Amino acid sequence: MSSCSNSMTARGCAHLAIVYVSEGRCPSIISELAAFAATATATEAAPRALLAHSFADPTYNRTSFYFVGSHVAASASSFVKAALARLEFSTHRGTHPTLGTVDHVCFSPLGTATALDSASEASTFASSVHSAVPTLPIYAYGPRLTGLCLKDIRKSLGYFAPTTTGAATMGRLHALVKENPPSAWTTQHVNSKGIDPELLSPEPHGVLCVGSVPLVLNYNLRCHPQDSKLTVAKLTRQVRLLSAAEAAAVEVGARITDAYFTGPTEAALLEAWRATIVLESGVKTS
C-alpha cells in the first residue's frame, strides 16, 4: 500500500511510472496509445493515475508516457497490456536500442514518497503484467527489487548490439533469455515465486525491464556533426551541474538533428498531480 494519501499528495507525495514504448513514428498509433494512457483503468483501491507527460521521438521510434499518482501500478499495467495487444514488435525499426514492444518501465518516488513504496508499486506492476502475459520475460532492477543494475541486464541481453528489426532482436533473445533468466522481483511487501525460464519466450514482444530508482532527469542536446568531443563533453558536464538540484540523477544524450528536450522535473510532475487532486476531490494545497 502506498504511503501517499490524498492529503499527503497535496503536500508533495506521489509516485511516477515512465513507460517506454517501441513506437514513435505512426501518428495514428501514437494517438491510440495516448488515448489508452489517458484512460488506463485502475481499481477501487488504486485510483487512476494521471498521464502527466508524453514524448514521441520519430528518430528513435520510441515514445515515453509519464504516469503520476498516489498509486501508478494499476494504470501503468493496464496501459502496457493495451500496448502489447496493439503493437507488432517484429517489424520495429529505430535508431534507439530496444529489447521489446514495451522496452522499459521505471518507477520513482516523488516528493516525500519512499523508495520502498516505489519498489512495491514496481513489483505490483510486474506481477500484474506477468499474470496477463505469463510468457513475457520480465527483468527487474533496482536496490529494492533485485539489486541488479539496468545497464548490466541490458548488456547481458545484447541491448547495445546493433540490430535491424524487432524480429532480429527476438531471434537473438531466444538464447540470451535462457542463458540469463530473469530473477523474481521482490520487495518487503510482495514476494514472487521464481519464474520457470522454460516457460518464457521473447516471442512476440521481446522482453520488458522494470525498475525502481530515484528520478532520472533526461536531456537531449542538439549537437552539430562538426562539434568536437571536448565541446560535447563540456556541454553535458554543464547540464549535469545546472540540473543537480532537480533530480537524483541526470542522463544526457547528444543528438545531431533534434531540438533541445528535457523530461519534466519532479516539481512539475508533483504540481500536475496536485492540480488533479484539487479538481477531482477538492483537497486544498495550502
TrEMBL record:
GO terms for molecular function: folic acid binding; transferase activity. Residues 15-214 form the Formiminotransferase N-terminal subdomain domain. Pfam families: FTCD_N (PF07837). InterPro entries: Formiminotransferase_N, Formiminotransferase_N_sf, FormiminoTrfase_cat_dom_sf, FTCD. This is Formiminotransferase N-terminal subdomain domain-containing protein. It comes from Aphanomyces astaci (Crayfish plague agent). The lineage of its organism: Eukaryota, Sar, Stramenopiles, Oomycota, Saprolegniomycetes.
